Every structure is written in structure tokens, then in C-alpha cells.
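Here we describe the complex-level prediction in full. Unlike the single-chain runs in Section 2.1, the two entities below were treated as one system.
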Amino acid sequence: MAVTLEKIPGQEERVILSMGPQHPSTHGVLRLVLELDGETVIRSLFDIGYLHTGFEKSFEDKTYSQGITLTDRMDYLAPLSNNLAYCLAIEKLLELEIPPKAQWARVLLTELTRVGSHLVWLGTHAIDIGAMSMFLYCFREREEILRIFEMVSGQRMMTSYFRVGGLALEPPLGWLDRVKKIVDRFPERVDEYEALLTKNPIWLRRTQGVGTISAEDAIAVGLSGPSLRGSGVDWDLRKKQPYSSYDKFNFNVPTRPEGDVYARYLVRVAEIRESLKIVRQAMEGMPEGPIKANAPHIVLPDRESMKTSIEALIYHFKIVTEGFHPPVGEVYQAIESPRGELGIYMVSDGSPKPFRCHVRAPSFANLQGLAKMMEGRLIADAVACIGSIDVVLGEIDR
Amino acid sequence: MSVDLENHAALKKLRAFDPDAVEDVQAFRGELTLFIRSTKLRRAAEFLRDDPELSFDFLADLTAVDHYPNEPRFEAVYHLLSIKTAQRLRLKVRLPGDDPRVESMLPVWPAANAYEREVFDLFGIQFENHPFLRRILLPEDWEGHPLRKDYPVQGNITRWP
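The structure predicted for the assembly as a whole is:
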């Protein structure tokens, strides 16, 4: 923290400007150090760590199941995606087989998370550039999605709904009807957003040709997710390395070749539509059956069997007091979170707590693309660039 | 999910390129880990990136693991990804406990910039030739490296003067 840029000798007329950390358009506590020539950004540097909470150290002090609650708090706009990556990593260590109903519910809920996260991005990105009303529209719809999360998990945001081996609870009756309401109504809403922005001349002037990054540069600095697809790279982990039975769903991966702020905007808006398609498929094809894997030494038993079976009671006691012991080894599990490749690197030494749990946060890598995007652009465009890579500081600082 | 160690393209090619580079191989849950000698890392990395069939052009992640009190204490862990072939590969470099240092991979994968600063910050591993190796998450005047195993979870409790 508190880094700054050194002035280059002979360029004394340039101004070093500190932007943030309390700046409304930095989406949290991101501080940028900009070297300006007039209003043009020559160089830039990001300064992070204001939200550093030591999650990776905390993981090592908690059992595998306890760690799930921490993952929500990293990327607080997409808690279920984080839950999923963390659980998948442990399930890969344990080689657990997850029943289809749990997998379908996971896909449905993570796609709703993606829609919700993109809505926050769209609202805040638009408000940064000056389209005030978008914010209200987006948050209205996001609330409906959060109500579904509240319905299934009891929490709007810090859901912790996915557990190692399946889901925490059986979803309540009638939840799919609520989902159906959203899925039926939503495409019109997306049309509304696009009517406000996609052909709006002010929006086009502020975003087209701004913050351009080529595909080679994007790959080199580690961009992923919509920011990479906005540069024309057809890369989506849901297609390329399918997890949680994404290979059984039919959807497209939107890409745009331009690599500017407008391209990233179009990719994300198209992604909202694709996610809704996946949600509809998951809703209509939701299989029947158990929501937890058949692994009594790992998955908590349900309340009823605890009262009637001594084995279930013993397992419950063992899992809660001690935890379970995965085999010695290490895995890396990556998923396509709303922001890009969210990877969990989990090292197990056979004890009930992770020996090391590292989070590959997509925003952390995406932030490195920012310097390239802002170079040579006006300072007002810097705001558009920050918005277009959709950073979440909770995940960057961890 | 098992890895065919003898016929794995990356391993076979890297061994043919430099027989000394790979000191150890591990496969677990379908993931291949190559232990690279720290002196050979730069050349091996460039080879893996530039070989047209492998083309590991995307450095997905860079982190470290502390095996305190065992020696060699640290492992630097590189997660590579090939956008072209959708393959993943993990490289590891073993580093000693006193004065752990390894060459910066910034010239090979520019993405390593912030990752290496993070590992330096939290583990205290030096990355040689990194142009701006400063703490990134913690304050500049922080003492110690929190992700080391000999650093207590609750932190070093200091008294207010």
C-alpha cells in the first residue's frame, strides 16, 4: 500500500494524481496512481489491500466445511459461485459423486448469481458514465433474484448454500415457480436495458474505441471471463473444461472482437440472456432424487435420521467436532465466475483442515489489464475502463 | 482420471528439450505436476509457452506453499493453461527456507507481475529481476509474512505504547 509513481526526469510538468480509495467510481476501495500529461493518462499503477482480511490464512485454521462461509465474503456479488468453486475443489480431492438434482440446482443458482452480478455491474458501470436511471432498473431486478436466494437458503447474500457433497437444504416447495416468473419476465427487461443504452449516442461516444486491449495482451496479462471474451477470445470454462454437468446444457458463448469498453458491455449483456437460457433448461429439466451425496462420513445426515439411527448420530458428531479427512494431495479447480476464472488451489495433508487454500481471484488478474487500457486515454475514460472490467475488491484483497 | 505419465505431451517434450529440467513428476486426480529445477525454470517456461503444440500462454495462477519445518521449505506453484488446447499444467519449484529466491517470470508471462508481488508479500519469497517487488496487500511497514506456517493465525500481538 501507499505506493506511488516516481517522476521521470525531464517530465516535471506531469502531474501524479491519486485517485481513490474513496472514489465512487472505483467500485470499492481501489486506489489508482495516475501520471497525467494535461488530462491524458501516461502511466498508472493500482494500489490495493485496503480490504485484506487474510482469508487464505483463516482457511488453514478452519475445517473444510467451516471454510465455506468465508468464500461468500470474498466476491460478495457472486457468493454462490465462490461456494461452488470451493466445494468442487474439495469434492475433487475426495472424488465425490454428486447427485444430479444437486448439480442442476447448483447450475441454476450460479447462473442466477451471474445475472445478479452482471446487473450490479451494469447499474454501477452506467452510473459511472452518467446513465443514472440504469442503476434503479438493475437493482429492482436484482432484488427479485436475491429473494430467490433468500427463499432457498435463508440469506440474500451470504448464502453458503452449497456444501461439500451437495446442497445444505432441500429447496422449498414452489421455488421453481418463483424462478419461472423471473425467467419469463426477464428477457423483456434486458430489452429495456438495451433500449436505454445499446444505441444511445452518448453511451456509444463514451464506450466505443475506449480502453482497447488486444487478444494477445489480454491473454498475456491474465484477463479472463467477459473481459477476455470482449477481446475476441472464445474462452469459457463452462464449455472448455465443463464442471458440475455444464456439458449437458445448451448455450452460446458470446464474444466480440473489438476489445473496447463497448465490446465488454455487449458481451455481458448477451451473457445475461444466455444465463437465462441455462436457468430455464435447469428449471425444466430438474431431476428428482437426493440433494446430497451418499457419503455418510462427509455429508451431514438429515435431522430425522439423526433421531432414529445411532450411526447417523455418530457421523454427525464426528463431522461437526472433527471434520472429515481427505486424502493427501492437491487439486486446482477453476470455474467460470461472473468475472472470469475463479480457481481454488487446495493442498491437503490428510488432516481435517486444508494445509493450504489459495484463491485465484479473477478480479485480481483482471486489474492488471487496466494499465494497458487506460494508457494514452483521457482521465474521464479511466472511469469507463475501471467499470468495464467489473472489479470486486473483496475478492482482490481477500 | 489418471494421467498417462510416459505419454504426456508436455512432459515428453520438456524432457526431450532439457533432460535436467524436470526433477520430479506427480500426478493426482488427473492433474500433472512437474517439479522444475529453479535454475532451469526460465528456459523451461519459455519452452512451454512457445512450443506450438503445447502453447501454455496463460499463467492462470502463481502461489506458494510453506512446508515448515521441513526442507526444502517452500514450493513456488505455477498453474499454466493453454487457451489453444484447453490443457492445464502445474509447475513447482522447490526453494530453501533461508533466503528463498527464484527468477521472476514476468518476461515470460506479464501476468506474473501482481502474482509475484502477492507471493513476496505473504511468503517473503524473492523474485529476482522483478522491477517493482513491493508489498501489495499489506502495508509497506508490515513485519513478517503472514502465510508462513510459523506466523500465528491471530497475528503477532503488539502492545500499544
